[in-house]
Write a structure and sequence with these properties.
Number of strands: 9
CATH class of one domain: Mainly Beta
Oligomer: single chain
Order of helices and strands: HHEEEEEEEEE
Low-confidence stretches: none
Distance between the termini: 135 Å
CATH topology of one domain: SH3 type barrels
Mean pLDDT: 76
Shape: elongated
């Protein structure tokens, strides 16, 4: 008998919940009846690491060293230069592994692991041939000075002509 009453009560509650016109209130959580979802994980700010560039490699005996420089954030400061071999560290930089054949170095930059390559992490090479100067037909030579007309003077100011020394 008690079992029948309990089963009928469960059936009535289930039926009432299914036909309850106010069930959407608890689903929408208007009155904060349900617990709030956990907040999204906070974004970890990217560490402000110094910029390290790879200059090259050189080998003395059996020891291969990598050449680096760090670019300062303030333009008034001068760059810091490093010459380190495997396992050696100086200041913010520690060299883990050197692969001179591939042109790559594994480093720790202020504790953060990074791999530098000559292709991606070095300065752009300087052009080997001098660029052609404007107004000349020759490369690398300055044109002869041309007389300049001053704005306020009605005449041409003289310029020094080039002198060719002969022996």
């Amino acid at each position: 008998m008690k079992l029948g009453i309990i089963l009928s009560l469960i059936a009535v509650v289930a039926e009432a919940a299914a036909t309850n016109p106010y069930a959407f209130i608890s689903q929408r959580n208007i009155f904060h009846l349900n617990p709030l979802p956990p907040p999204p994980p906070a974004e970890v700010p990217k560490p402000d690491l110094p910029v390290i560039k790879l200059s090259g490699f050189f080998k003395v005996g059996s020891v291969t060293r990598a050449l680096f420089f760090s670019v300062p954030k303030d333009k008034k400061e001068r760059p810091t230069y490093y010459s380190l071999c495997e396992g050696q560290g100086q200041g913010i930089l520690k060299v883990l592994k050197i692969n001179a054949a591939a042109g790559a170095v594994q480093i720790l930059n202020s504790g953060a692991a990074a791999t530098l390559t000559l292709k991606d992490d070095s300065l752009k090479p300087v052009s080997e041939q001098p660029k052609q100067m404007a107004g000349t037909g020759q490369r690398g030579r300055q044109p002869f000075p041309q007389p300049q007309v001053h704005r306020n003077l009605p005449f041409v100011l003289p310029t020094r002509s080039p002198q060719i020394l002969t022996r």
